[in-house]
Design a protein that fits this description.
Number of domains: 1
Distance between the termini: 31 Å
Oligomer: single chain
Radius of gyration: 14 Å
Number of strands: 0
Helix content: 55-70%
Number of helices: 5
Order of helices and strands: HHHHH
Shape: globular
Length: 107
């Protein structure tokens, strides 16, 4: 997936300031993961998201790996942040469409 496609998907999902998103910056990657969970994916109850929200924690990657397992992201196959972003955005897009499919219908 190209950087332009990431920006396009972030825009489609309503992410704030998608043009300035930089997946190389770890904090931005972490913020995007939390935003996707809070706004689109919602696999965890609000109180279960606490560890993901600790963006500065040295244990954040452990929480992220557990999140990937729980959401079904094949972390052993998708090892780069860009691959993980691609998968999460695709998953979030499918869920968003399932939630809001009627607004996209042309019937």
């Amino acid at each position: 997936m190209s950087y332009a496609n990431v920006i396009r998907k972030l825009k489609a999902l309503g992410y704030a300031s998608p043009e300035s998103f930089n997946p190389i910056r770890e904090k931005e990657f972490r913020n995007m993961v939390v935003w996707l969970e809070d706004q689109k994916i919602r696999i965890y109850k609000i109180e279960e998201r606490a560890e993901l929200r600790k963006l500065e924690s040295p244990h954040w990657m452990n929480s992220f790996h557990q999140y990937c397992t729980d959401v079904g992201l094949p972390i052993t196959l998708l090892t780069t942040p860009m691959e993980q972003i691609e998968w999460l955005l695709g998953h979030a897009s499918r869920l968003d469409y399932a939630d809001n499919g009627k607004k996209f219908s042309f019937h």
